[in-house]
Amino acid sequence: MTKVPFETQNGDSEKTDLKEIDSNKTDAKKSIISSPETSPAKTKKNITWHKDVVDSLNEGEFENGEFQGSGNLFDDNEIIKYQGKFVKSKRHGPGILFLTHNTRIEGNFVDDELVSGKVYEKQENPENQPQKGKSKPTDVLKYDGDFKNNQKHGNGTLFLKSGNKYIGEFHENLRNGEGKLYRKSGEVCYDGTWKNDKKSGKGMIKFKTGHKYVGEILDSKRQGQGVYYWNEHTFYKGNWENDQRSGIGMLSRYGLVIFDGEWMNDRYKSGIYNYHGDKSLSKYKGGFNEAGERHGKGEVLWNDGSKYSGDWVDDVREGKGTEFFGDGKVKYVGDWKGGRKTGVGSYYFRNGVKYEGDWVQDLRHGKGSLFDCDGNLSYKGDWFKDNGCSLIRKKVY
Q: 41 and 109, same structural domain?
């Protein structure tokens, strides 16, 4: 950059080295600022001036003792910090603010404050890299919008390294308020509120899979009440915690409720699961394990009205449980293992006969007693694969 000559009091140009100006800073201030003879009223001249207040070096148009028009502002190391318009020694109008060697803001100033502008950053551009030598630095637009106190503030557009861009509100250099995030393709991937540069409040998240979430968000995670859509027919509506389904919620598909109840860590915890389309099963009501399997206390209902109520372990009946006929009458009460009657239990036949004793894999096996429909003991003794080994009276069943 070519600097304008330093003006003498009589108006004649006299070339002076910047180092000499710096060494005579105090004298320059006194001779140029304090002395009325240095800057006569209504006289416009090019001048290099050490500013009295900020102790920095300016050069440009000078009128009535103040900078007026085009000029440059340098720091103590004679590195340019601002280039543009001045009004009464204040930056006012279009100008360029140099933040670092690679970053600058081309904007508009009012009363020495930056109010709007574009942030550019020099980057190596691989596409322009020649076959030999280094790549050519290219200006990349990083931000276009409002400023306050040299910070992004108001409305603006932020261009991200990923190719995504944000259009919306800023507060003190961070995304705050309403704003939209766009993918490189131009598709909106978030539309909602922001707080301290994170998605927070209420909004819509569009995933690359095409899935969509609409609801409450905290620190860029789904938190609170919200709806997650796999497609227009399948959705989850309910509570979220730390980006996972947790709390009370409902899963629906094609207008049919699949699960309604409590969730934890994106899995069923307890509630009602409906087996739509299953020829035999109707629904299950009870607890689940972390894998989403029936676990703990639960009740399953078949389409014919029969049901089981009792203990479950990893999706199979195991522990204590009761099996019912379709008309609601008790069928079996006792022990279960691996989904079958195993252990000790009582079985009630439809004709009124009852068996009490040992079971192995759904068969009477071990010690057991058989009672007729009037409650009289018909057989007591050993059983082998569902058959009594000896009779004390006539065989009833």
A: no
Instruction: Work out the number of other CB atoms within 10 angstroms of the CB of residue 353.
Output: 16
Q: Domain boundary at 206, 233, 267, which?
A: 206
Residue 276 is classified by DSSP as T
Q: What is the residue type of 369? A: S
Q: How many CA atoms lie within 13 A of 128 on its CB side?
A: 8
Q: Which two tokens stand for residue 354?
A: 């009852």
- With 0.90 as the threshold, say if the pTM is over it: no
Pairing, β 113-124 against β 267-274 = unpaired
Pair 299, 284: CB distance under 8 Å: yes
How far apart, in whole angstroms, are the C-alpha atoms of residue 60 and residue 47?
6
Max Cα distance, the chain (Å): 141
Whether 117 is in a domain gets the answer yes
Q: Are residues 143 and 188 in the same domain?
A: yes
Q: Which domain holds residue 113?
A: 99-126+136-206
DSSP letters for 292-356: S-EEEEEEEEETTS-EEEEEEETTEEEEEEEEE-TTS-EEEEEEEETTEEEEEEEEE-TTS-EEE
Residue 30 phi/psi, 5-degree rounding, is -65, -40
Q: Where does a domain end: 163, 180, 206?
A: 206
In 3D space, the residue among 369, 377, 382 whose CA is nearest the CA of residue 393 turns out to be 377
Q: What are the tokens at 182?
A: 């766009």
Which residues face 257 on adjacent strands? 252
Residues in the chain: 397
Convert the pLDDT of each residue in 233-273 to its tens digit: 999 999 999 999 999 999 999 999 999 999 999 999 999 99
236 inside domain: no
